[in-house]
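Hello again, I could really use a second opinion on something today. I've been staring at a protein lately and its backbone has me curious. Please have a think about how the structure follows from the sequence. I owe you a coffee for this, so here goes:
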Amino acid sequence: MRCVVQRVSEASVTIDGKVRGRIGRGFVLFVGIHTTDTPTQVDWMIRKCVQLRIFEDEEGKMNRSITDVGGRFLVISQFTLYGDARKGNRPSFIDAARPESAIPLYEAFVEGLHRASGSEVETGEFGADMKVALVNDGPVTILLEI
């Protein structure tokens, strides 16, 4: 499982011209599910995202989590995180989980984030053509992988 975490001051996702999800301060999480992922990887990623301390404290140090600052999540499914372009110029996506196994894990991730953080979790739509707009705060971008 891979998750690109971007600390944002605001973000939104639009599908077919309609805003599907919008947040202020928080994280945009681009989530890729691998063919071998299980609920164990999902649980680890949930804990890591909720506990990740990349918000600044009063001394300007990255020492606060998303729950410490009352932030929110916008979760975007992104199978292209498993694109392998080492050979040739067209990425291969064979390591990305098929929808029948990826969707339940993605949904478990979203629900687990909500339970673990107590925060509302906005989402895109699995497999949809989404337009994501965000203001990366910092910029701060972290790649998590298990």
Q: What stands out?
A: Helices lie at 39-51, 99-117.
